[in-house]
Amino acid sequence: MKLTPNDILKMKSQPQAFPCLTAYSAPMATQIDAHCDLILVGDSVSMVLYGFNSTQNADMEMMIRHGQAVVNATQQAVIIVDMPFGSYEESPEQALKNAQRIMVETKCDCVKLEGGEDMAHTIATLVKNNIPVVAHIGLQPQMATQASDYKIKGKDKAEAEQLRKDAQAVAQAGAFAVVIEAVPESLAREITAQITIPTIGIGASNACDGQILVTEDMLGLTLGKKPKFVKEYETLSNNIETAIQSYENDVRTRSFPNEKFTYKSKKPKNLPEVA
Ligand code: KIV
Tens digits of per-residue pLDDT, 168-191? Predict the structure, then answer.
């Protein structure tokens, strides 16, 4: 059965947390759909698939193309498409125009944007225009332009207080869920208890109502240093390397393609004997 943003809202404060993952392609989305309540077409696509070093390189065309692929391949999960950097910060009107384009062209269920108190008016504008919104507070990757910007948020008093305000503001503006990234457990627990909408944690402890990870990180497909909060459930990069090495060897030694993988033309029938 197809889930809706309203179903996610009802998952607030349940004994079981709800699982969410990212997907950018049809094959990955197909596999995730039966197991996760929510799939995010994240702007992390620009780093994970395209090899850029910032999510700022994602644009509307990139998000729409990948959004279409994921929507086409799924039946159950709620599909969120990230609003890319530069598509919503200028004004609520700019955000509305671009969110409407994402919704219409991808047929996704909702959009996500980064920001708390500063984005409350924009969130309210989208919600008023029937666009369900997920907010994203704490570490906001679109603001992280260098490796050192990827750090825990809310460790000092002032930052923690701002995060509490951000969470309240996005909930009051009408967001139906909020991603909380890289925040200490005690603060994530407190915010989750205080707001009426589900919190979705990434590096924010198991106190949140749901959890999300970047799929390529948890499958061991991203190389290099990963954040502390990533649990690698498989190291698929090793399996892929082994398969590619076998292919390389088979091709170099002409063992692939062998008979099994080769088309043969039919023997011509009743041809006159050649004298
Ligand atoms: O773009 C993304 O993948 C995200 C997750 C980190 C939540 O926003």
Answer: 999 999 999 999 999 999 999 999
232 is catalytic: no
Using the atom order of ligand 1, give the atom closest to the CA of residue 200.
7
Q: Residue 127 in contact with residue 99, Cβ under 8 Å?
A: no
Q: Which helix (H) or strand (E) holds 96?
A: helix 92-106
Distance 45 CA to ligand 1 centre (A): 9
Residues with CB under 6 A from ligand 1: 22, 40, 42-44, 82, 136, 179, 202, 212, 214
Distance 156 CA to ligand 1 centre (A): 24
Distance CA 98, CA 91 (A): 11
Strand-pairing partners, residue 113, are 135
Q: Which helix (H) or strand (E) holds 245?
A: helix 236-252
Give tens-digit pLDDT for 241-274.
999 999 999 999 999 999 999 999 987 777 666 6
Domain ranges of the chain: 5-231, 235-262
Is residue 180 within 8 Å of 164, Cβ to Cβ?
no
For 5-231, the fitting CATH number among 3.10.100.10, 3.40.50.620, 3.90.1170.50, 3.20.20.60 is 3.20.20.60
pTM listed for this prediction: 0.95
List 117, 159, 181, 216, catalytic entry: 181
